[in-house]
Amino acid sequence: MAGIAGRGARRAGGPWRGMALLAALTLSAPSAGAADRPARTASAARLTQTEKLTLVRAEIMAGPVAGVSIVTLPGVPRAGLPALRMALLDDGAGQRSPLALMATWDRDLARRAGQARARAIRAGGRAITAVGGVGPLPAGRAYEGEDPLLAGRMMGAVASGLIAGHVLPLFGGRGQPGADAVSEDRMQALHVALEQARGAGMLCHVTVVDARPCGALDGMERTLRDGWHYGGMIALLADRPTPDDPAARRPILLSALAAGIDVEGEPGTADTALFGVSLRQAVMKGGFLPPARLDRMAAHVMQSMDDAGVIENPPPFGALRAPALYRDPLAEDVVAEGTVLLRNENAILPLAGTTAEPILVLGTGAAREAADIMADALGRAGQVARRAADAPAEGPLPPYIAQAGHIVFFSAGPEDDRLIGAVADTGAHVLVVLLSDDPARSMPWLDQVDGVVQAWSWREGGGDALADLLTGQRDFSGRLPVTFTGGAAPPHPHLAAYKAFDRAHVAPLFPFGYGLSVRARFTYGDLKVTRDGSRLLVAFSVSNRGAMAGRDVPQIYLDLPEGSADAPKRLIGWRTVQLTPGQAARLAVGIDARMLGHWNPVTLEWVVPAGEYGVSLGAHAANLGQQMTLHLPEMHISGALPDAEGG
């Protein structure tokens, strides 16, 4: 159905907002919307009302592990819809950052990571999981990156791998609901991700359901269902029960429905849940929710289950047990491709520890275990390395640190800054390995050390790969998926960070897409851009003029016409290529016109204004050496997701 809440309803506030939503729900036409496949809607209509209400309410129970709840979609056995489970991190339990995987810029690796994760999930009797990196609620750059194309393609590839393994992915996770509308970048990231993972759902995970439970989606149902022809489910999960004040529950229910929520879950019983007795009363005879709307909610759930293959391939549903500790079988690959070299002065890399001058490996606090693992891995790589005892938080350094010639310092946070500075003041050659996913970390010691490596929140499973990088057995190829700001960023927080720096004409500490190699040296040339209908074809050459084989990630950016309201440039494509010394390759990248324009919520299409556009090629957002300009006519591109089949 075209948007539940009309334009006036979205602007209304307080009690008037609730009345407007009620009117929109009551008067909405019962016919299926553009996103709803007739066969699936008809199947949902054949369910009993009790079965439909069961299908759209998730059950949340405390799990056998602290900080983890188990979410169950009860399903409808009579209709062949299996019960499905997922593990949900509770409030305060934290969520895993996807930045290490994004830093590989390797979509094939991301898909394989999704397939490996699917095997582990199903082995635990579950078949639904949250996929971070993109989602309707803002979660911060550490959890969603900052570029819609990179985040959308990488996390869409993860979701595609999950679906191939018969696990239903839900884009999103814990976020911060609020009054701000969905940003253009977040919306574009969702669209890109859904293109690759048809059937994936969306998730808003909040502490407690309030008046804007899925804030970014409020008022977007017309865009999602009629514009994108998105037929999947939208889930709302809360850590705490909805307030039981009857006067407060009705407007909250209306807001959830206005945001297009199909499934709601919270701790408690069916009688207390928002999509329990409150929803049942809303669809009973004389209620304000048209029965056809409940049919469509059930159809969206069934569509995602069907597209993810969990109906034909239901997981084992045995006794509730703790989710097993997941050991990523691709951890070595992610470390090898996603570790980013930020600084390499005075030939600190590759490391070369000898008996006369061993490498001293230092790590305190949370980084202590990683330092132990790395000292062992360096030994296996043929280096002479020894693990140092923890240095004192205050006072002079012990002699074995003060007299060391080469020191590798593993740091998990800014609490190490004083110690790093003290170690660097000894005159030793110091390499700092960062073990956090904080793109805003300041580095007051940066000019005092010889090298900096961003290894993300690596702890285990990638020690040998990291040792190979540090000792030169293979070259670094990771590229930053976020701008490293050094703790100082310009305004415009609603924009991707590198766009904000561009608008302010300020250089960041390390720019988006940045990453060094040690001995590989890549150069670009012969940039050509042609237009084929609504697509651009960007062709160029890349050569390795270095002394070692390496993997490069040439990046393509668009410079927008003068007067554009957006930031000066945006990423529109990239390729990864492995080259031996002296080898050259000719590459081509197809660019969809949707990446060139903006979304028009009125006409439900992507619009590219006529004008002069620049296409730039380079190693990162602040190093674009190859450029050319072309004129584009005004273009209008359908917003429908590929292979949507009307839904």
From TrEMBL:
Gene Ontology BP, a term: carbohydrate metabolic process
Signal peptide extent: 1-34
Swiss-Prot/TrEMBL keywords: Hydrolase, Signal
Fibronectin type III-like domain sequence ranges: 552-621
SUPFAM superfamilies, sorted: (Trans)glycosidases, Beta-D-glucan exohydrolase, C-terminal domain
InterPro entries xrefs: Cellulose_deg_GH3, Fn3-like, GH, Glyco_hydro_3_C, Glyco_hydro_3_C_sf, Glyco_hydro_3_N_sf, Ig-like_fold
Pfam families: Fn3-like, Glyco_hydro_3_C
Keyword Signal: yes
GO MF annotations in UniProt: hydrolase activity, hydrolyzing O-glycosyl compounds
SMART domains (alphabetical): Fn3_like (SM01217)
Keyword Lyase attached: no
Family: Belongs to the glycosyl hydrolase 3 family.
Name of the protein this chain belongs to: Beta-glucosidase
